[in-house]
Design goal:
- It is a single chain.
- By secondary structure, the chain is mainly α.
- The protein has one domain.
- It contains three helices and no strands.
- α2 (28-160) crosses α3 (167-188).
- The N and C termini lie far apart (164 Å).
Length: 189
């Protein structure tokens, strides 16, 4: 490599860094051309790249803001729906409690009605039984009166030795005998 530098130096009268060039400060033509290229790149960047970049950034910002707003709206809607569901659930529970209470009251009312109907049926059956018993008793008493009347006639005929044929005498005798029997039975009570 050093041979190349000496070879180039032999053709040229000076070596490249012999003129006192500074490593930190370039030549003026390099600064001018670098500035021109920088300005052209800056204008192109400013004219084409930066607007697109700003447009993309604005779209992203809008999407993000829209997403946040949609998320907030969705959250508010979900919260409203939750509150609505909770209020409907509370109303349903209150309505269920009212229905249960009404059913209990209706059950008590039906129970009271059934009890009253049962008691009325019981009284009707007892009254019918008492009427039937009274009718049976009256029938038995009538049958016993007839038998007692017949027995008393037979007994009276045996005692008197003659037949009591007259129906008026017979009925008068029977009636008086039966009334005496009723008086005797009432006196024993």
């Amino acid at each position: 490599m050093t041979n190349v530098i000496y070879y180039l130096a032999a053709e040229a009268e000076t070596l490249p860094l012999d003129g006192g060039n500074s490593i930190l400060l370039p030549k003026l033509y390099d600064i001018v051309w670098s500035a021109v290229v920088f300005v052209i790149i800056f204008i192109l960047f400013w004219k084409y790249v930066l607007p697109r970049f700003q447009k993309v950034m604005a779209e992203r910002e809008d999407r993000i803001k829209g997403g946040i707003e949609r998320a907030q709206a969705a959250q508010a809607e979900a919260k409203a729906a939750l509150e609505k569901n909770n209020s409907q659930l509370a109303e349903a529970r209150a309505e269920a409690a009212e229905i249960r209470e009404a059913a209990r009251e209706k059950g008590k009312q039906i129970q009271a009605e059934m009890r009253a109907e049962g008691e009325a049926e019981q009284r009707r059956i007892i009254d019918a039984g008492e009427k039937q018993l009274a009718a049976s008793r009256d029938q038995v008493v009538a049958e016993l009166r007839n038998e007692i009347g017949q027995n008393s006639i037979n007994l009276a005929e045996q005692l008197l030795g003659s037949e009591l044929s007259d129906s008026t005498r017979r009925s008068g005798t029977i009636d008086s005998f039966l009334s005496e029997l009723d008086n005797v039975s009432q006196a024993r009570k």
